[in-house]
Amino acid sequence: MQGDRAFSTLHLPANRRVAGWAEAASDRFVESSFKVLEPEAFIASMLNRDMADLSLTRIASVGHVTKRVSRSRQQAARAAEDFFLVSLQLDGSCALAQGSREAVLRPGEFAIYDTRRPYELVLHEDYQQVVMRIPRRTLAARLPHCDALVATAVGAHELPSRMLVQMVRTAYDAGAAPPAAVADDIADSVLGMVCAGLRTVQDGEVLPHARDRQLARVRAYIARNLHDPGLGVARIAQALGLSTSYLHKLFRDEAHTLERSIWLQRLDACERALAGAGSAGRTITEIAYAAGFSDAAHFSRSFQQRFGMTPRAYRKRHGLAALSTRQPGRGS
To answer: What three-state secondary structure class fits 37?
Structure first.
């Protein structure tokens, strides 16, 4: 086992920081390309620690505004490496894409990606991240279908994710690397938490218990943000740290797609407002806009399609009836 090794761009001239980082990161992981929006403001450091087959690297980066890490098809084809990389986000966010999948990692979340295939990571802000390099044979021995799980975020609320964050933080905070025999056991435990987290998804399908929790999160977010006309799949995915493909899978067995579910919830919110005495002082347009509609004519057509009458007619029939039941001395 090699000792800890550190690298920082601070000792390099400003115009050499990106090139120096690119060389150090490619040596540590695999050959890849780096683009930084403000290269002269770029400051980054890494602390490397090897334990058995597992290589850990804690990265902290500031000042770059946007950093893009990519591995091209040509780079992957000419390489002899055969690894999976695991990105565990500690601070900031990271957008990861491989193949047809994408994931936005928020603090406490992680995902794997395959060095034999092209991938791209985009980081728009200062961040801290732990990147683990695991030989393919090691991960595949425990999780035979790991290829199907690339670029799929394991949520921060999952127990394996919470434990993994604690383990890697403690591994670095402990100071010097542990003796080889101890390091083997620690590496085995860390790998076990990675696999346990990945088992919350299986062959790209959301497991039942995880699916229910994620659906509840998505629905709660929709309810809180129904007023936002920009609410949609992309917005929800970014806010909750999920990939768009994962969101579509969540709703695949539901009665409606995610987009239609949002649309129906908006119409139902308007229907309740129009039928309730509490909204008597609000115009129909105000009610529609409060539910996230941005076009009054489109709202009117959609409402009539769903409820069989215009919003004005619905309010006249149901809203006034609701008002009369609230007046003292009037029957229902």
So the answer is: coil
* Structure token pair of residue 292: 């996230």
Supply the angle between the helices 296-307 and 258-275 in degrees, to the nearest 10: 90
Q: Which tens digits make up the pLDDT trace of 192-223? A: 999 999 988 765 566 666 677 788 889 899 99
pLDDT value of position 264: 92
Q: What is the pLDDT of residue 204?
A: 57
Specify the residue for token string 């695949």.
252
Chain-centre distance of CA 314, in angstroms?
41
d(CA 140, CA 265): 43
Strands (E), the chain: 5-8, 33-36, 43-51, 54-62, 67-71, 83-91, 94-98, 101-105, 110-114, 119-123, 127-135, 201-202, 205-206
What was the pLDDT predicted at 188? 92
* DSSP annotation of 103: E
DSSP of 38-100:
SGGG-EEEEEEEEETTEEEEEEEEES-S-EEEEE-HHHHHT----EEEEEEEEES-EEEEETT
pTM for the whole thing?
0.64
φ/ψ (deg, to 5) at 91: -145, 155
Angle at alpha carbon of residue 59, lines to 19 and 9, rounded to 5°: 35
Among 156, 165, 255, smallest CA distance to 214 is for: 156
Distance of alpha carbon 308 from alpha carbon 306, whole angstroms: 6
Q: How far, in whole angstroms, is CA 312 from its chain's centroid?
A: 41
Q: Which segments of the chain have a pLDDT < 50? A: 1-2, 321-332
CA-to-CA distance for 123 and 41, rounded, in angstroms? 15
